[in-house]
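stage 2 :: seqdesign
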């Protein structure tokens, strides 16, 4: 991933940087906008793309590798083992003090189940840019910027990110010697939508640009004719890029294990700034470090389906009971280990609401466990409501994603982008909590194990080049799977 370039920003001024930095749009005539989660796949895909990938599946198979370990071998790894560069994923050329999390985060992750293969550096060429604009909450933003980074890698573009006040210093600079922050005088950061005249969909409708190949099979190469692209999305559209024949070979080389995409992109790109990282360090060292096992429970309620605390808590308890995630309690004094100290299991509860922590803490504070284990329950914060517009709220959210990613086992809400980021960084397949039935207010299945560690693309491409019917990619592409509880969504496996 060392092939990504960035222009030097205000944080790292130099004469060479000023020569490379654009003073404005310059000679650029068009700025492209990908305004919605559906817009990227709308113009990038066609049924021929899916058919081509399905036909060439043996090519993908040649690049496929087996995981280098399993959960048990990870647990046997010494706690002190520390691969600070993540097997070559990170550059050693940073000043560690400017971003403490970059080299320290790996101390608590389990060894990655996805081995890295050496990459290729891009040759010199005229700079083209993709400008990322944030949208929705922190989880959406992390998935979207990682997807944009992958698109930049595939198309040889420089990635620049707009950093509004609520994201100031939230993440470290990811590229040594450069800044990825969009210059503050850049004229296009607000007011874009699918209706904007510069949006790609409007350019198509007005015949300013056209689909290629006559059938829409691989229109994704068209935006390369423009030096500037402005992209706003709240989706993990990296999944959709795997449907494009143009990128098929390169993606196979980059990700021989296709379930490792966000796992590697996120670990490379998204390092908490020192302020947020300090919260992570203090909380982990103070509450979680001494535990023999850590269970993360992340609860995100759907705004479109009112669910009472009692309904959701019963489902969480049922999931934990059915899959031996937590020990049962007893009214007796409880079993004691024959020798030595009792095993300690730490439960990290992450939710905007405090009730789930209160209930679990009360259960295990008041009652002994039948196994003799000691269960401790912690919750870092409970802001009640989401406030993406506030930097302090986003810092707390980021400081909860990382301790979640240090769990040994995870239970997350089935559709939560926040949960996606945590379990993907961890390299863990979580237990996913489905939404209850609207009528009975009870889920038929308490939770189900995710098919992979990858996030879900909630808004998959509609293959518009096929007039009669949409083509389901899952039926034709072996490494795609419908998401467990977003049935129309797609994920890599």
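stage 2 :: out
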């Amino acid at each position: 991933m060392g092939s990504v370039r960035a222009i030097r920003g205000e944080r790292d001024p130099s004469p060479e940087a000023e020569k490379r930095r654009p003073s404005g749009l310059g000679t650029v005539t068009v700025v492209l906008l990908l305004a919605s989660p559906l817009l990227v796949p709308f113009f990038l895909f066609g049924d021929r793309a899916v058919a081509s990938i399905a036909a060439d599946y043996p090519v993908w198979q040649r690049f496929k590798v087996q995981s280098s370990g399993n959960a048990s071998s990870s647990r046997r790894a010494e706690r002190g083992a520390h691969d600070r560069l993540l097997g070559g994923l990170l550059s050693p050329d940073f000043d560690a003090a400017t971003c403490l999390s970059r080299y320290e985060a790996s101390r608590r992750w389990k060894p990655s189940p996805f081995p890295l293969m050496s990459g290729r550096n891009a040759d010199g060429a005229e700079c083209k840019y993709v400008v990322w604009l944030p949208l929705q909450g922190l989880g959406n933003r992390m998935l979207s910027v990682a997807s944009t980074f992958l698109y930049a890698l595939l198309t040889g573009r420089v990635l620049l990110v707009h950093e509004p006040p609520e994201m100031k210093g939230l993440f470290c600079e990811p590229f040594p010697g450069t800044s990825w922050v969009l210059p503050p005088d850049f004229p296009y950061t607000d007011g874009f939508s699918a209706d904007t005249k510069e949006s790609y969909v409007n350019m198509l409708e007005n015949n300013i640009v056209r689909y290629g190949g006559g059938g829409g099979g691989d229109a994704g190469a068209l935006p390369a004719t423009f030096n500037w692209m402005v992209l706003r999305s709240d989706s993990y559209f990296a999944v959709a890029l795997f449907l494009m024949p143009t990128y098929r070979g390169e993606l196979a080389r980059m990700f021989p294990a296709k379930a490792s995409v966000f796992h590697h992109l996120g670990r490379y790109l998204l390092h908490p700034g020192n302020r947020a990282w300090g919260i992570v360090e203090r909380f982990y060292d103070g509450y979680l470090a001494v535990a023999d096992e850590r269970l993360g429970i992340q609860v995100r309620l759907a705004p479109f389906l009112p669910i009472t605390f009692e309904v959701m808590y019963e489902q969480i308890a049922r999931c934990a009971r059915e899959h031996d995630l937590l020990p049962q309690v007893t009214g007796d004094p409880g079993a004691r280990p024959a020798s030595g100290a009792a095993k300690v299991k730490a439960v990290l509860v992450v939710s905007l609401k405090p009730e789930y922590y209160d209930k679990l803490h009360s259960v295990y504070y008041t009652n002994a466990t039948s196994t003799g284990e000691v269960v401790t329950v912690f919750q870092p914060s409970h802001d009640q409501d989401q406030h993406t517009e506030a930097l302090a709220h986003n810092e707390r959210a980021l400081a909860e994603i990382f301790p979640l990613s240090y769990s040994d086992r995870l239970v997350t809400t089935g559709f939560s982008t926040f949960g996606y980021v945590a379990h993907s960084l961890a390299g863990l397949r979580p237990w996913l909590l489905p939404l209850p039935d609207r009528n009975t207010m009870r889920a038929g299945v308490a939770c189900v194990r995710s098919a992979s560690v990858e996030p879900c693309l909630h808004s998959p491409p509609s293959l518009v080049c096929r007039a009669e019917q949409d083509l389901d990619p899952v039926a034709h592409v072996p490494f795609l799977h419908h998401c467990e509880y977003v049935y129309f969504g797609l994920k890599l496996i």
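stage 3 :: structure notes
- Residues 274-455 form a domain with the Rossmann fold fold (CATH 3.40.50.11350).
- The two ends are 22 Å apart (CA to CA).
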